[in-house]
Specification:
globular, 5-stranded parallel beta sheet, alpha/beta, binds thymidine-5'-diphosphate, Rossmann fold
Length: about 200
């Protein structure tokens, strides 16, 4: 099972993902977490480049698009092995981040043609003003204008591709419950009172 969690910077993905992992493990499932960009050499290069004020220039966006796609391809084999081994993989970001953060859209789709298809995508939706108040906002992409356009693109794709959309501006506890409720049907978890 391959679960993807998406959302703009500061949406709370890295807070919520460990809760989801712990909860699924209570049902005896074996869960593995992955994060994009990864800690491969390519992923480390990406993180360095994201600190560069030029990261949002047209040329740099394309370069990053290629690097994200390469980093993802390196990750693919690992994910497939684990998935075949009956593990649940929860990924913090994915190919969809490239679709909404980088451009042009069709080209990003093309260079990510070989990515693994997820079983479910959860979008943690939040207003950038709220999300940026939660983080330091030091990376180039972490500005209200940029994240506003990223959020709009996320919502459009989410509606087209049937993502589960969670209101990530709610309190931490409520968001955790909403994520569990979205995931539960995948595993046939449907007992009353099990989400608290
Ligand atoms: P990170 O510090 O991990 O942010 P977050 O905790 O919000 O995920 O940095 C990841 C940054 O990389 C984030 O700003 C989104 C961006 N990104 C892309 O632009 N394209 C991509 O394909 C991916 C995976 C991430």
């Amino acid at each position: 099972m391959y679960i993807i969690i998406e959302g703009i910077d500061g949406a709370g993905k890295s807070t919520q993902i460990p809760y989801l992992k712990e909860w699924l493990e209570e049902f005896g499932l074996s869960v593995e977490l992955v994060v994009e960009p990864t800690d491969s050499n390519v992923g480390r290069l990406i993180r360095k480049m994201l600190k560069n004020p030029d990261a949002n220039s047209e040329n740099m966006q394309k370069t990053l698009g290629l690097l994200f796609a390469a980093d993802r391809l390196l990750l693919k084999e690992q994910i497939e092995k684990k998935d075949n081994g009956k593990k649940v993989i929860i990924s913090d970001r994915s190919f969809y981040s490239s679709l909404v953060y980088q451009n042009p859209f069709e080209w990003i789709k093309t260079i990510n043609k070989y990515v693994k298809k997820p079983d479910i995508v959860i979008l943690m939706d939040i207003d950038p003003k709220t999300s940026l108040s939660r983080i330091k906002g030091e990376d180039t992409f972490e500005t209200i204008d940029f994240l506003t356009s990223v959020r709009e693109k996320y919502l459009k794709i989410a509606n087209e591709e049937n993502f589960k959309i969670i209101d990530a501006s709610n309190g931490e506890k409520k968001v955790t419950i909403d994520i569990k409720k979205a995931i539960a049907p995948l595993f046939g978890i449907c007992k009353d009172g099990i989400f608290e």
